[in-house]
Specification:
Layout: E1 2-6, E2 20-29, E3 34-38, E4 44-51, E5 53-58, E6 61-66, E7 70-73, E8 79-82, E9 89-97, H1 101-106, H2 120-143, H3 148-174
Helix pairs in contact: 2-3
Length: about 180
């Protein structure tokens, strides 16, 4: 397994914050490799499949995932990933913590008492649309032929906007508007 964590920058800080983005990472699984079942007590995790085909298990549900799929994993839900295919599975992931999620993780699980304003399916569709939009913006920035520093600034702005949007989707999904 190849795993790489992205670093934050002053315009887009993360890692170790009480709320918001905790980490952004990229993973490649070769044929037959897997990520052992695990959970994140106070973090929502989002997988965006960049390339390949694999299997994801979230709680009791197991599905095949393909390039372009987005998987939303609620906090404290066991999940795993594997690559039974002949090609590498390439995903990017984000760990997100809402300000009150860490506090709720220490309480007993009261998931059934959370009033959701949007469904998991709608949240996934919105995140998938965001990922597609971000890709299009990245292509437009590259096509603009700007210098490395300006490209970095523009991409930081896009990353910040996307992460704020994911936070809003999470708030809508968890009922914490």
């Amino acid at each position: 397994m190849e795993l790489r964590y992205f670093n934050g920058n002053p315009a887009f800080p993360f890692e170790g914050k009480e709320g918001g983005v905790q980490s952004v990472w990229e993973m490649k699984l070769a044929t037959g490799e897997a990520v052992a079942p695990h959970s994140h007590m106070s973090d929502l995790e989002v997988y965006v499949v960049i390339d390949g085909m694999g299997e994801m298990q979230v709680g009791e549900e197991k599905n095949t995932v393909l390039a372009g799929d987005v998987v939303l994993i609620p906090a404290n839900v066991e999940h795993s990933a594997s690559n039974p295919s002949d090609a590498p599975l390439h995903v990017v992931g984000v760990l997100w913590r809402s300000a009150d999620l860490a506090m709720r993780a220490t309480e007993s699980n009261k998931e059934e008492n959370v009033m959701r304003t949007i469904s998991a399916s709608a949240a996934l569709d919105q995140i998938k649309d965001l990922a597609s939009f971000a890709g299009q913006l990245g292509q437009q920035i590259d096509a603009a032929g700007v210098g490395a520093e300006e490209r970095k600034e523009r991409m930081a702005f896009v990353e910040d906007a996307i992460m704020k949007s994911i936070g809003k989707i999470w708030a809508d999904y968890s009922g914490r508007i």
